[in-house]
Structures are given as structure tokens and as C-alpha cells.
Amino acid sequence: MILLDGRIASAAVKATIQEQTALLVKNGKRRPHLAAILVGHNGASETYVASKVKNCEEVGFLSTLIRFENDIAEKTLLEKIEELNNDALIDGILVQLPLPKHIREAKVIETISPAKDVDGFHPINAGKLVQGLPSFIPATPYGIMLMLEHYNIYTKGKHAVVIGRSNIVGRPMSILLSSNLPYGNCTVTLCHSHTPNLAEICRQADIIVAALGRPGFVKADMVKPEAVVIDVGITRVDDPTAKKGFRIKGDVAFDEVASIASAITPVPGGVGLMTIAGLLKNTMQAYISSKW
Ligand code: NAD
Questions:
Q1: Which long-range contacts (CB under 8 A, 24 or more apart) does 245-254 make?
Q2: Thinking of the domain 28-116, which architecture would CATH place it in?
Q3: Separation CA 57–CA 94 (nearest Å)
Q4: Catalytic member of 91, 117, 119, 231
Q5: Rounded CA gap, 248 and 233, in Å?
Q6: What's the average model confidence in pLDDT over 141-151?
Q7: Band of the pLDDT at 139, cuts 50, 70, 90?
Q8: What tens digit of pLDDT does each residue of 262-286 get?
């Protein structure tokens, strides 16, 4: 069994980006710059944004963290995004989700310039992805593709089952895996909460991507021996014995599935780290495409 180690695969991606950035600086160019907006004080969101900022620093990017309180007016948030859209020295903009209920998430996403949409959530980028045109790919599915590439996981003609159809993970993942790409050339079944016979479908999969947010959902009896299993799930599960009072759990029952899979990602230490790698690649791409 191969452990698809996000620390190793993401370090390789980051090393390349770091070298590219160092070369830019050596040639007198400015550094790529990511602006991250965080609304409120959600614990998980705080952790994700802090990690994104830290990773930007590690590869030599500039980063700006803009914080707003939970009760910020939608209009103020949209104005800030417009300001960043018009700032020639900002390459990428991300707004950490979820947002408070009074703010329309779709409106916020649509306000980000597609050219700076390094999360790849804007409908224009989503549409381009569907048509196989160059676009910003949502960071998590992008990171998974980078993981498959790093470990040279053969996908041509394989049957991939994706569990979850969200716009940020499951749906773009299903599109990438069904494209005519070196590491995404599968027949794909996209499953969701209304899929009957889910376990039966999973047992037919050569590759499973679990992105549903139900800790330990994928059990060994749902997995074909020698399948490749990618666990996207991140759920905080209460655990009074843990230092922080919770543990991070994936959507796969790791120990039992690892005993029959040919390759599997751990949680933590798997897809989460690759998501950051995907975001950094998108930010570098935005920089390269900018006129400045
Ligand atoms: P979501 O809640 O938007 O979507 C979940 C999807 O799972 C839905 O399409 C739903 O139909 C499906 N689903 C729910 N219960 C199901 C069931 N019992 N059987 C089959 N399908 C079911 O979630 P999301 O934003 O796509 O995130 C999914 C998980 O991935 C969460 O745990 C989230 O925290 C995690 N996540 C991780 C990363 C990362 O970097 N590793 C990034 C994004 C999301």
C-alpha cells in the first residue's frame, strides 16, 4: 500500500514555486501577491487562512490578510473586493468560506475578477473548466490532480467514483477526472446524498474520491481490493483527550480501508496540504497572466 503523503507531494510543488519566485526576484521583478479576506472568527476558517498566509510566505509570495467582523455589511465586503480587483499589485483574491448568512456567497464569488479568482469558484472559471479551457481550477480538486501526478497514479480507462457534488470539490473533481488529461482520463460516476446503492457503486471503483463531510463514512466493505482512495473530508470531531478538544477526521475509515487499498491519502496530512499547493499554483498563474 502506498501512502499518498500530502507533506511530500505538496513540498515538491512548493519547492518549484519557491524557485520560480526566487528567479523573479533575482531578475528584479515583483513577487506574486495574494489577498485573503476573512469574515468573522470561525475556528476552522481562522486555521485555513493562517495556513494559506504562512504558505505564501514560505514560497516567497506577498500576502495580505483583510479581516472583517461577522456583522459586516455585504456592500462593504463587495467594495473591498472591487478595490482589490482594481489594485494592479494584487494577483489573487480569496474570500474564505463559509460567510455569515446575511451575505450572499454567490454575489461575493461573482464580484471577484475572474482573472484574480485563485479559488476557481467564479462561474466564468467553472464554465471554462467544463469546456476544457485554461482556467483557475478549484484548489482542492487541483491539489488532488497534483497528488495523482506526483505519485504517478494511472487513471486512463479507470472507473472513478466521486462522492459529493459541491461546486468546490465533488463536481469539479468529476469533471477533471473525466477529462482527456494524463492524470484524469477516467469513466466517472458522481454520487451524492440521493444516490441509491452507493456502497455497490463504490465497490466497482478503481479510484474513490470521498468528499461528503461524514467522518469514517467509507468502510472497507465499500472498497474494491487495490483501489486508490482519496479522502477529502475534514470534520472536527470532539475528543476531550485531544489537546484542542477535537480531532480532525476524514470521510474514510483509514485503518480498515488502508489494509485493502493500493494507495490512500491520510487525514490530516493528505488532500488538505495539496489544496494549499493548488492555491499557490493558481496564484503564480494569476501573476504570470497579469500585465504587471
Ligand atoms: P458540501 O457539504 O458542500 O457537500 C457535500 C456533498 O456530499 C453534497 O453534494 C452531498 O450530496 C454529499 N453527501 C452528503 N451526505 C452524503 C451521503 N450520506 N452519501 C452520499 N453523498 C452525501 O461539502 P464540501 O464543501 O464539498 O466538503 C466536503 C468535505 O470535504 C467536508 O468534510 C469539507 O470539510 C472537506 N473539504 C476539505 C478540503 C481540503 O482541503 N481537504 C477542502 C474543501 C472541503
A1: 249/215, 249/216, 250/210, 250/215, 250/216, 251/163, 251/210, 251/211, 251/212, 251/213, 251/214, 251/215, 251/216, 251/217, 251/218, 252/210, 252/216, 252/217, 252/218, 253/216, 253/217, 253/218, 253/219, 253/220
A2: 3-Layer(aba) Sandwich (3.40)
A3: 16
A4: 119
A5: 9
A6: 98
A7: very high
A8: 999 999 999 999 999 999 999 999 9
Name the grid cell of 236.
Answer: 472536527
Ligand 1 atom closest to Cα of 251?
A: 32
The domain locations on the chain are 28-116, 139-272
Check residue 59 and give its pLDDT.
Answer: 98
DSSP, collapsed to helix, strand or coil, labels residue 37 as strand
Q: Which of 14, 91, 96, 285 is catalytic?
A: 96
CA 97 to centroid of chain Cα atoms = 12
Any atom of ligand 1 within 6 Å of the Cβ of 163: yes
Pull the grid cell for residue 152: 504517478
CA of 89 to the centre of ligand 1 (A): 34
* Residue 224 to residue 259: CA distance in whole angstroms: 11
DSSP string, 140-181: HHHHHHHHHHHTT---TT-EEEEE---TTTHHHHHHHHTSSB
Let me know if 119 is a catalytic residue.
yes
Let me know if the fold of 28-116 is the same as that of 139-272.
Answer: yes
Q: Give the model confidence (pLDDT) of 210-266 as tens digits.
A: 999 999 999 999 999 999 999 999 999 999 999 999 999 999 999 999 999 999 999
Q: Whole-structure pTM over 0.90, yes or no?
A: yes
Helices (H) and strands (E) in the chain, counts: 10, 11
Superfamily name and number for 139-272: NAD(P)-binding Rossmann-like Domain (3.40.50.720)
Pocket lining: 211 vs ligand 1, CB cutoff 6 Å: yes
The rounded Cα 256 to chain-centroid distance in angstroms is 25
